[in-house]
């Protein structure tokens, strides 16, 4: 029997997901929950030709659209097959065994998975119970052994970190020759960004995705944004073809039609207002969020597990319950439009009446 690398053999990954979700309300994965209108969909698909299926993708037109949209240089950008592939390339390029990786938690699971995969020593830094991030304590953990600092902003708590605090982290990391990865997956739901700092600091790299606000989770389009020196190094480990030609064509259509993104973000914000209002009336604890998801906690005597099961019986998927710090039996819902969120709240009300 051929043995895998020891680091790989020790890893755990979840079993393949064989669920069928198309007939459910998909409120559990932070993807777009509404389908595109028929006219919108037909226009999107019309950008694809037979040539795009048989030929390797021609990506430079898409690169050109993105750098014009973001107002950056071509040398500041690398396309990746989803932001997770971009994250992996950062670990491939910079992380060796026993390097310390400082990860803010809770966070995207792949940050920790890749740390295990490449044999890094994980240093975890948790959000506080009120979902703030103690930056003073975070920077105290940065030292000469720290190779990478991982922060999502907005975070996977729904909370955000002020630009001034992120600068402090970057500066402290720079003194210790540490790279700072800032994941801006939920950028469009919170317009602040660190993109203006990529040429000021040589130790930051931003990751973005077309899976959230763009609503293109299936296409796997990610961005790595950084100074020329960092992107040059990351380029060396990229896939031969960063993304597919089909993804590039459709991604380019969306960059040319940002009104589709703005419309979806507005729908999510309206949906959040429904949740804040209606869940608050039930006495549930609802956490404010700068993303397309919301954490909430049931009142005493209401089982979050039973509620989740009831929702699934009524064709509604949500995530949780979460028991790890800073959450205490909280549930999470991906936010849809007003209609979807009212259907969710109506179903929840029925559960409370019958239980």
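Sequence proposed for the structure above (355 residues):
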């Amino acid at each position: 029997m051929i043995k895998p690398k020891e680091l790989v053999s020790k890893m755990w990954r979840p079993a393949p997901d064989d669920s069928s979700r198309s007939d459910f309300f998909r409120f559990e994965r932070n993807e777009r929950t509404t389908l595109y209108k028929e006219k919108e969909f037909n226009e999107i698909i019309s950008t694809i030709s037979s040539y795009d299926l048989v030929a390797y993708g021609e990506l430079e037109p898409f690169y050109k659209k993105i750098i014009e949209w973001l107002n950056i240089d071509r040398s500041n950008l690398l396309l990746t097959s989803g932001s997770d592939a971009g994250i992996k390339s950062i670990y491939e390029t910079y992380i060796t065994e026993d390097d310390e990786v400082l990860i803010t938690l809770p966070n995207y699971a792949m940050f920790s998975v890749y740390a295990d995969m490449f044999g890094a020593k994980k240093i975890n830094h948790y959000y506080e119970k009120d979902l703030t991030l103690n930056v003073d304590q975070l920077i105290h953990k940065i030292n000469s052994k720290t190779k990478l600092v991982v922060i999502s902003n907005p975070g996977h708590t729904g909370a955000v970190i002020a630009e001034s605090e992120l600068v402090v982290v970057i500066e402290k990391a720079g003194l210790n020759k540490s790279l700072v990865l800032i994941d801006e997956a939920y950028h469009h739901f919170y317009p602040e960004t660190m993109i203006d700092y990529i040429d000021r600091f040589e130790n930051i790299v931003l990751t973005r995705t077309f899976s959230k606000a763009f609503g293109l989770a299936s296409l796997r389009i990610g961005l790595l944004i950084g100074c020329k020196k960092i992107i040059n190094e990351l380029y060396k480990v990229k896939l031969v073809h960063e993304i597919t030609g089909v993804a590039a064509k459709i991604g380019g259509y969306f960059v040319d039609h940002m009104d589709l993104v703005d419309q979806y973000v507005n729908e999510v914000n309206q949906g959040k207002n429904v949740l804040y209002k209606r869940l608050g009336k039930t006495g549930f604890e609802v956490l404010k969020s700068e993303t397309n998801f919301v954490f909430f906690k049931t009142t005493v005597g209401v089982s979050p597990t039973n509620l989740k099961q009831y929702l699934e019986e009524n064709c509604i998927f949500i995530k949780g319950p979460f028991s790890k710090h800073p959450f205490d039996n909280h549930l999470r819902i991906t936010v849809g439009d007003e209609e979807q969120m009212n259907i969710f709240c109506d179903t929840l009300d029925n559960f409370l009446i019958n239980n």
